[in-house]
């Protein structure tokens, strides 16, 4: 993998998932170009590349386009070998890093965080935004339902705060892995808590605040200072239009070799999948109504790669974890 190909990040500023990637890029000092997106569909800039996936962020390295922040960060870790990585090196620290990732994403921390968005935010009152998020989550969340879920969500966040306060930060360390600077483990743990703590009205001050969790809140503040300092020390990323981003991507070579389909993979054997088969790929939790269909390029235990139906422009990479791959019939997949 080359660190010389253009990196283009499709995102919008207040996406908490996008912040994970932006923070990583700044803390590691990796230059990138950004193509800013609207918070709701449609996103014609991505349609230009034949991409139907609706979640943000998306990152391209050359003509390889990566979905899901976990895969994006894993790929970025492999780039620029001359720049120190943010990921852990020892096995026990890698275990902490991975467990924190699973806790935040799969363990429900971010789901609880979403339930604490104040209902009086102007954006949440926009009917277009409401319809978009109903399509995104598969549920229409009413004001009454949101109010009923709020106490449970507050309690979940309190438990996470308490876990960090009374275990990892109990000894007075600055960073989760006792490093001199923030690492990937800090990013994996901090992003939903940082998002909530910076959102007025999200957390009830009598239950979740710096008074109850001083070490955790101090860590969040340290992290913000470190990210701000890293950002200030680097050139501002160029912002390009969708047309400019498409040109930048499609005129580049691919970042990775094409790869193969693992014929022994259980999914491949069950569905009779081979290289070149027409498949549909989509996330299993949110955004499941938007499925990318294309030619199967590569299938490994950790990753699936397709060439979208629009064809020839990019290769689309998705992690196996949290995504479904199925044979597709016809021009679209209704599976």
Automatic annotation (TrEMBL):
Q: Which InterPro entries match?
A: DUF7962, Glutathione-S-Trfase_C-like, Glutathione-S-Trfase_C_sf, Glutathione_S-Trfase_N, Thioredoxin-like_sf
Q: Which residues form the GST C-terminal domain?
A: 98-249
Q: Which Gene3D superfamilies match?
A: 1.20.1050.10, 3.40.30.110
Identification of the protein by name: Glutathione S-transferase
Superkingdom of this protein's organism? Eukaryota
Map out region (Disordered) in residue numbers: 316-335
Its taxonomic placement starts with: Eukaryota, Fungi, Dikarya, Ascomycota, Pezizomycotina
| Species, as recorded | Coniochaeta hoffmannii
């Amino acid at each position: 993998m080359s660190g010389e190909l253009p990196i283009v990040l499709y995102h919008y500023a207040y996406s908490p998932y996008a912040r994970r990637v932006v923070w990583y890029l700044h803390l590691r000092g990796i230059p990138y170009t950004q193509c800013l997106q609207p918070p709701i569909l449609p996103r014609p800039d991505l349609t230009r590349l034949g991409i139907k996936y609706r979640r943000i962020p998306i990152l391209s390295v050359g003509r390889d386009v990566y979905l899901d922040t976990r895969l994006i960060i894993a790929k970025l870790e492999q780039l620029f070998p001359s720049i120190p990585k943010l990921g852990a090196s020892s096995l026990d620290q890698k275990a902490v890093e991975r467990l924190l990732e699973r806790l935040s994403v799969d363990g429900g921390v971010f789901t609880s965080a979403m339930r604490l968005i104040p209902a009086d935010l102007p954006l949440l009152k926009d009917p277009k935004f409401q319809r978009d998020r109903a399509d995104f989550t598969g549920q229409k969340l009413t004001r009454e339902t949101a109010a009923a879920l709020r106490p449970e969500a507050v309690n979940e966040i309190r438990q996470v705060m308490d876990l960090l306060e009374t275990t990892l930060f109990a000894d007075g360390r600055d960073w989760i892995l006792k490093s001199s600077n923030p690492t990937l483990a800090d990013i994996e743990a901090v992003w939903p808590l940082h998002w909530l703590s910076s959102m007025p009205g999200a957390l009830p001050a009598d239950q979740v605040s710096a008074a109850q969790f001083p070490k955790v809140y101090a860590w969040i503040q340290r992290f913000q200072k470190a990210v701000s300092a890293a950002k200030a020390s680097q050139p501002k990323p160029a912002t390009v239009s969708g047309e400019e981003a498409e040109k930048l991507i499609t005129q580049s070579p691919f970042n990775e070799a094409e790869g193969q389909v693992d014929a022994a993979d259980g999914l491949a054997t069950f569905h009779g999948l081979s290289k070149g088969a027409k498949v549909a790929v989509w996330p299993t939790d949110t955004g499941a109504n938007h499925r990318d269909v294309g030619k199967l390029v590569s299938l490994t235990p950790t990753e699936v790669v397709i060439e979208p139906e629009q064809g020839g422009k990019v290769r689309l990479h998705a992690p196996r974890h949290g995504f479904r791959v199925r044979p597709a019939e016809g021009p679209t997949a209704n599976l």
